[in-house]
């Protein structure tokens, strides 16, 4: 690891130690500030909770064995997180035996994911498969037009390139941004970004996976039970199962059937979540 990464890692681990000895001391993860830079320019989340989570993910990246590496925002994070035990049980039911590690973090935009990748969360992991699901936080709940679509596409392209640079032997699965119904006006932007994403895939070491026709109708209106009624954004267990059912044939093709044992590192969660 580069010197700056070792120093940063040591500093961040000290935060984790404090959190572990004093209990959950941080507020729930705040939304990022209103003003944002380009989607393809790395930018850290500097609140203490996000930095503590980053330290935990750095430690996870150096523990166990990770053959399937999930990276993204809260939609990716919640699936394999200790603070969502029902979703974590579904994660284990679907991926046990494939050594899967969850490296999502809530509220992250593409630029925040880029920063985490640049700051060591994929260094030395060498997964065989990387699953990317990101971009919905850049979409947001308000439409922004062609410039916004192009910016998000550049951000997702940059994430793909970072993953290829740091894990050149991995097959990358680019997952289409899921439908969101908190504002139907953003659905055309989601659809266009997904079209752009599909063009990045070559069908070999970069695959494109779109399960949106199982989550919503042709107009993007969610089918009942696929997403949380409260936010119309985060999947329920049924929604996650749709994603899992599409991923498992790809994992079987690339990795073979799941083993009877699993060597993935232990799951992490939101450091601010109440202990159970």
Q: What labels would you give this structure?
A:
276 residues, Rossmann fold, 45% helix, 5 strands
Structural commentary:
The chain has 276 residues and is of the alpha/beta class. The protein has a domain at 65-255: 3-Layer(aba) Sandwich (Rossmann fold), CATH 3.40.50.1110. Helix content is 45%, strand content 9%. The chain has ten helices and five strands. It has a five-stranded parallel beta sheet, with helices on both faces.
Biggest pleated-sheet summary: 5 strands, parallel
Q: What CATH first level of the domain at 65-255 would be assigned? A: Alpha Beta
Radius of gyration: 18 Å
CATH structural architecture of the domain at 65-255: 3-Layer(aba) Sandwich
In DSSP terms, counting alpha (H) and pi (I) runs of 4 or more, how many helices? 10
Uncertain parts: 1-7, 9-34
Short note summarizing the structure:
By secondary structure, the chain is of the alpha/beta class. The protein has 10 helices and 5 strands; from the N terminus they run H-H-E-H-H-E-H-E-H-H-E-H-E-H-H. It has a 5-stranded parallel beta sheet, with helices on both faces.
Ordered list of secondary-structure elements with their pairings:
Elements: H1 3-22, H2 48-61, E1 68-72, H3 74-79, H4 85-95, E2 100-104, H5 110-121, E3 129-133, H6 136-139, H7 146-166, E4 171-175, H8 187-198, E5 206-209, H9 212-215, H10 237-255
Parallel strand pairs: 1-2, 1-3, 3-4, 4-5
């Amino acid at each position: 690891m580069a010197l700056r990464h070792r120093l940063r890692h040591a500093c961040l681990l000290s935060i984790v130690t404090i959190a572990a000895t004093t209990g959950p001391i941080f507020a729930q993860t705040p939304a990022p500030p209103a003003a944002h830079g380009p989607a393809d320019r790395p930018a850290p989340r500097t609140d203490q909770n996000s930095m503590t989570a980053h330290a935990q993910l750095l430690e996870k990246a150096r523990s166990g064995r990770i053959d399937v590496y999930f990276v993204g925002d809260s939609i990716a994070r919640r699936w394999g997180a200790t603070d969502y035990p029902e979703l974590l049980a579904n994660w284990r039911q679907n991926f046990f035996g494939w050594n899967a590690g969850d490296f999502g973090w809530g509220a992250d935009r593409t630029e925040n994911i880029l920063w985490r990748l640049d700051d060591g969360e994929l260094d030395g992991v060498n997964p065989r498969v990387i699953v990317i699901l990101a971009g919905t936080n850049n979409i947001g709940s308000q439409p922004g037009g062609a410039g916004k679509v192009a910016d998000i596409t550049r951000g997702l392209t940059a994430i793909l390139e970072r993953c290829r640079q740091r894990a050149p032997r991995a097959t990358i699965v680019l997952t289409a941004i899921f439908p969101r119904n908190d504002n139907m006006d953003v659905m055309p932007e989601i659809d266009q970004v997904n079209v752009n994403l599909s063009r990045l895939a070559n069908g070999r070491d970069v695959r494109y996976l779109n399960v949106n026709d199982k989550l919503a109708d042709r107009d993007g209106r969610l089918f009942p039970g696929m997403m949380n009624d409260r936010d119309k954004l985060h999947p329920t267990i049924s929604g996650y199962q749709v994603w899992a059912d599409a991923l498992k044939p790809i994992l079987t093709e690339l990795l073979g059937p799941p083993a009877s044992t699993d060597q993935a590192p232990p799951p992490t969660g939101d450091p601010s979540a109440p202990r159970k």
